[in-house]
Each structure stands twice: as structure tokens, then as C-alpha cells.
């Protein structure tokens, strides 16, 4: 265990009914004995008086004791649940810091120690961070799946298959004279790699990182089509200035929404036309830039003077065409799959919200808990592993190069969870082929 014992306020900042103070390290038991008069039973919440070593009462609260290694960090660990005033929290922490070998924890240090002690892997660390920052139901579900190690289990299965292929190839190189080792092992390794390439390719089609960061939906269209009014209606509050004067929206305006658990960033942009001024030209340039980067485009059409097609630069974007101001032109009709709304009266907004949720969900992973990639880093590592395996299949490559490509693929997969151990390859060789008996 790490020599230093760390202490920190583990619950939210500010006054609250209850605050949690967490302690981890060799001195955790000493702190409990000094502040609480002794150790409670392991993993049993016990009501205790809490005070400094000289026993001036600070508060009364629940105390929990988690002896190593059965704790979150893998070290001796304690939690004190006291009243949540700043005075109580600061005095309890100061009392703990008065003991030798105790210091304040650095940001994320409890999780760092859990990782160092193999209580969690790197993906679970990222899942915990996402869980703390989750804002919607689907984000919470995806983050919880990461923190619970569900994707890590699949990565580990891939890793074990790769280790088997490495063992086969290394055995072919190093023990080719052994008949029991050499027969057909190249074909076995190739079959394992082919299956891995297919599985990695399927995983790379997922877009779990979009659910983590949110779906970007840009509202675009000609001036005075009612884009800002529609944004205010969808957000159910005034976030954009509305005017009958064309070209009043000059800058990009964003609002964050929760659509049935799906995090959405709704972006209002300047009307697209020939600019009347340099300021408006800059607004239009920003609008086109945001629209090109969007996951989904809401092309707004004015029912009183419809312009159905977006500029050529946006023609290929996935989009929903919205016919707005139908309260002013009730006979207006759309072309194809058009949603007719009135930002003023609210007519058609529920249908539009349902469509946005449907389209946004299709831009993310197939299920909140099934995402294998939630960060750009994950995609980079999976692509690196797959490319290495594709190079392995090159029939012209020498066996030594093939073995190196498997090592490269293993390193990429190992970086996903933080597990990189070449000794596993030797273990696979000896367990499978009984070499040396």
C-alpha cells in the first residue's frame, strides 16, 4: 500500500444534511481510533462521537471501516458520515491532518489508488468520471455500464483470443521442431485473427462517444423562417432574440436539452442568404461551419415563402425539413417527409420533438449500456488493433512480422483497460502446448 494516508471531503461542496469524509491508507485505522475511540466492525455503519485526538466533541455521525483489500481503493479505508456544515467538515479533516503521515488527497487520488491496486481498470475509471458528470438517463446508464466493467469484459475476451493467437505464432517460431506444436497452428492463429477483425469492425460502427458528449442539432434556414422562435419553443424559454427584421441573429446560440434521456445541444444560427454587411457575413460563415459539423440539420422553411433546399454545401447532411409558421399559411404543404409546425402556437412541436429523439438516438450506440467506445481514445485504440490484425493476414509477411503485428494489436487493446503484460503470452504457450515436460 502507498505510505501516505489521504483524507478528503467526498460529497458535494456547500451546506448539506450529510457530508462524507473519506480516508484511505496505512493510517486509516489510527485515524478512526483517534477520532472515534476505536474501530467499528468491518462494513457495518456505526454511530460514533467524532472528535480530535484530545476529545473535544465535533459531531456525531456514522462511521464505516473497510479493511484492505476489501475496499474501493484496495487499502485500509474509512468513511465518516457527519453533518454537512462547512464548520463540521473542516474541523474533522483538520483533526485527521493533525496525525502523522496524513495529507489531503489530490484530485482523483482515491480512484488512482483503486486503479494501482487492480480494483478497477482504466475503462472503469473513465466510466466513474462519466457517471459523476452524467446529466441524462441514457448518459447515466452508459456510464454505469462502463463503471461496472461491462465493456471491459468484452475487451478482455478479445485480449484472451489475441493472447491465444500470440501463443500459437510464438510457438510456431520458437518450437517449430516439435511436431505436437507445429501441426496446423498457423491456420488456427489465422482463424482467431479473422474472427477478431470482424468483431472489431462491428464495434467500430458504434457511436457511444456521441451519447457521452451529446448530439449536435443545428437549426438553419433562410432569414425570417422562424428559427429563433422555434428554438425558444423547443427550449421552452427565451434563449434567442426574436424579431421581424431579417438577419437579427448574427452569432451562434446554443442550448442544452434532455430529450427522453438523450443529451442534445440545439444550435441556432444566422439566416443563410447573401450577406448585407461584414458582420452578417461572419454570422453566415459561422452558421455554415456549425451546420457542416452537426450530427443533424433542422432545415426551417417559412410556410409563407418556402425555400425547400439548403445550400449545396449542406445538401449531403442528414436533415429534417420543418415547415414553420403554418398558423399564417394553413394550406402550406411540404415535400416528402416534412414536419409542419407553428413555433407561435405550438402546433406540431410534439411530433418534432419525437422525431428529434428518434433521429438523435440513431446517431448514438444501439443501446445505452452496450457502448464499447465512449471516447475518441477508445476508437483510436480499436482502429489501431484492427489495422495491425489486417496486416497480420498479409500472406507475404514473414512469420516474425506477423508476430510483431499481434504484439502491436495486443498493446492497443491493453491500453484500453490499462492491462499490458507480455508474461501472459508465455503463460499461454506453456499452458496450451505443455512445452518442456
Task: Describe the 3D structure.
The protein is of the alpha/beta class and 437 residues long. Helix content is 44%, strand content 16%. The protein has helices spanning 28-36, 86-97, 109-116, 122-133, 137-147, 150-174, 179-182, 185-203, 208-213, 227-235, 278-293, 349-362, 376-392, 399-417, 423-433, and strands at 5-9, 18-24, 46-50, 59-66, 77-83, 102-104, 215-220, 253-259, 262-268, 296-302, 319-324, 338-340. The chain has a 6-stranded mixed β-sheet, with helices on one face. Strands 8-9-7-10-11-12 form a 6-stranded mixed β-sheet, sandwiched between helices. A hairpin with an 8-residue loop joins strand 1 and strand 2. The model is unreliable at 241-250 and 422-437 (pLDDT under 50).
Would you kindly provide a brief summary of this structure?
By secondary structure, the chain is of the alpha/beta class.
Summary tags:
437 residues; alpha/beta
For the report, how would you describe the main beta sheet? 6 strands, mixed
State the order of secondary-structure elements, H for helix, E for strand.
EEHEEEHEHHHHHHHEHEEHEEEHHHH
What is the straight-line distance between the termini?
A: 38 Å
Strand order in the sheet with the most strands: 3-4-5-2-1-6
**Using DSSP, what is the number of strands?**
12
Strand content: 15-25%
Level of helix content?
40-55%
State mean pLDDT (0 to 100 scale). 79
| Structural class by secondary-structure content | alpha/beta
Low-confidence stretches: 241-250, 422-437
Tell me the overall shape.
Answer: flat
Radius of gyration: 30 Å
Oligomer: single chain
Output the number of helix runs. 15
Amino acid at each position: 500500500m502507498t505510505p501516505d494516508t489521504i483524507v478528503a471531503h467526498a460529497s458535494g461542496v456547500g451546506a448539506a444534511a450529510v457530508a462524507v469524509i473519506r480516508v484511505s491508507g496505512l493510517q486509516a485505522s489510527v485515524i478512526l481510533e483517534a477520532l472515534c475511540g476505536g474501530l467499528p466492525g468491518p462494513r457495518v455503519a456505526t454511530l460514533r462521537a467524532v472528535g480530535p485526538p484530545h476529545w473535544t466533541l465535533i459531531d456525531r455521525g456514522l462511521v464505516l471501516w473497510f479493511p484492505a483489500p476489501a475496499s474501493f481503493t484496495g487499502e485500509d479505508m474509512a468513511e465518516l458520515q457527519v453533518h454537512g456544515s462547512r464548520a463540521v467538515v473542516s474541523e474533522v479533516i483538520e483533526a485527521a491532518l493533525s496525525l502523522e503521515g496524513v495529507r489531503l488527497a489530490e484530485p482523483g487520488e482515491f480512484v488512482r489508488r483503486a486503479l494501482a491496486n487492480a480494483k478497477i481498470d482504466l475503462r472503469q475509471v473513465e466510466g466513474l468520471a462519466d457517471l459523476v458528470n452524467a446529466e441524462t438517463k441514457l448518459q447515466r446508464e452508459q456510464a454505469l455500464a462502463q463503471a461496472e466493467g461491462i465493456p471491459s469484459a468484452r475487451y478482455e475476451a478479445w485480449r484472451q483470443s489475441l493472447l491465444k493467437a500470440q501463443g500459437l505464432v510464438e510457438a510456431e517460431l520458437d518450437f517449430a521442431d516439435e511436431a505436437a506444436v507445429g501441426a496446423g497452428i498457423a491456420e488456427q492463429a489465422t482463424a482467431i485473427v479473422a474472427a477478431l477483425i470482424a468483431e472489431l469492425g462491428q464495434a467500430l460502427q458504434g457511436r457511444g462517444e456521441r451519447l457521452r458528449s451529446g448530439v449536435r442539432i443545428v437549426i438553419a434556414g433562410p432569414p425570417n423562417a422562424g428559427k429563433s422562435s422555434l428554438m425558444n419553443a423547443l427550449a421552452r424559454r427565451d434563449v434567442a432574440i426574436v424579431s421581424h427584421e431579417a438577419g437579427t441573429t448574427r452569432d451562434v446560440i446554443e442550448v442544452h436539452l434532455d430529450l427522453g434521456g438523450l443529451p442534445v445541444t440545439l444550435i441556432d444560427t444566422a439566416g443563410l442568404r447573401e450577406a448585407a454587411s461584414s458582420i452578417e457575413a461572419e454570422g453566415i460563415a459561422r452558421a455554415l461551419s456549425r451546420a457542416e459539423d452537426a450530427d443533424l440539420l433542422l432545415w426551417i422553411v417559412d410556410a409563407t415563402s418556402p425555400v425547400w433546399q439548403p445550400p449545396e454545401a449542406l445538401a449531403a447532411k442528414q436533415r429534417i425539413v420543418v415547415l414553420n409558421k403554418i398558423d399564417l399559411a394553413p394550406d402550406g404543404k411540404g415535400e416528402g417527409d416534412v414536419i409542419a409546425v407553428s413555433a407561435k402556437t405550438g402546433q406540431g412541436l410534439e411530433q418534432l420533438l419525437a422525431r428529434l429523439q428518434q433521429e438523435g438516438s440513431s446517431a448514438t450506440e444501439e443501446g445505452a449500456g452496450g457502448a464499447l467506445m465512449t471516447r475518441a481514445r477508445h476508437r483510436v485504440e480499436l482502429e489501431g488493433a484492427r489495422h495491425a490484425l489486417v496486416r497480420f493476414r498479409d500472406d507475404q509477411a514473414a512469420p516474425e512480422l506477423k508476430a510483431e503485428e499481434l504484439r502491436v494489436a495486443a498493446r492497443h487493446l491493453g491500453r484500453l483497460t490499462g492491462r499490458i503484460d507480455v508474461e501472459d503470452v508465455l503463460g499461454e504457450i506453456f499452458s496450451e502446448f505443455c512445452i518442456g515436460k
